[in-house]
Design brief:
Blueprint (H helix, E strand, L loop, with lengths): L2 H5 L5 E6 L4 H13 L3 E6 L6 H4 L1 H22 L3
Parallel strand pairs: 1-2
């Protein structure tokens, strides 16, 4: 993982990780959210590696909130 490359990300980044994921996976995800600009970490406490398959409703809610928040921020930024 290269922090300099992560700092070059030019899009809002939501990092989602299961609380039951391997500690190395959780740490890697935390580091992404620390080094990438405009990034944040969301944990799903009772999820492991396949959160998107086993916790589909939670994942859908997290993604929907991310998209909605980004759309709202873009709309506000476009105001004169």
């Amino acid at each position: 993982m290269n922090p300099a490359r992560l700092r070059s990300l030019a899009v809002p980044t939501q990092v989602v990780c299961g609380g039951l994921s391997h500690p190395a996976v959780r740490r890697a995800n935390e580091l992404i959210s620390v080094h990438a600009p405009d990034a944040w970490f969301v944990g799903i406490e009772d999820a492991a590696h396949f959160a998107i398959a086993r916790h589909a409703a939670k994942m859908a809610d997290i993604v929907a909130r991310h998209v909605t928040d980004q759309a709202a921020q873009a709309a506000l930024a476009s105001l004169p």
